[in-house]
């Protein structure tokens, strides 16, 4: 019975965070190297791992989460292997090397607890969306895991003059040093009478990357925030 299932067995640990297949994250847990992870994302673990929902560090940041963009997080600590997933979404692992990334809170799966992080307003979009768009910014030296509804594309903006345009509902993350501005247009649906047809895109320029998923988030990311 074990032979047909051998190909699905856990592989030897090679990094702090790595993919186990396309839809699961494997984290090598060690005492003193805590992890923040989305509440409810644990699917299995080996060894001794403890969980603390809504830890003090998260409560402190949550005071700024008056916009509803905050992701519910739990603190994971201990020794062993931890497996995380989010309803079968693809998992993208990023190793930050002193740089940062701005992440849509709904796409944030896990990150090293020692990283600097917080919620910030995305500049350049207020006139398009009331109070604008809020994201979670993470920076430092460590690991971050994101989710994507399908296999994502990573667009290198390249630092040229051309802008990269993305539907905000398909946006996962981007380099925080990129310049961002909003653009209005009209969707093709307006030609056949479905809805108002008005749409927003986010325009990125500068040196950095943009991560885009092949599925639009069901929530309206550009609604007015209080």
TrEMBL record:
It comes from the Bacteria. It holds the Pfam family AIM24. Gene3D superfamilies: Mitochondrial biogenesis AIM24. This is AIM24 family protein. It comes from Streptomyces malaysiense. The lineage of its organism: Bacteria, Bacillati, Actinomycetota, Actinomycetes, Kitasatosporales.
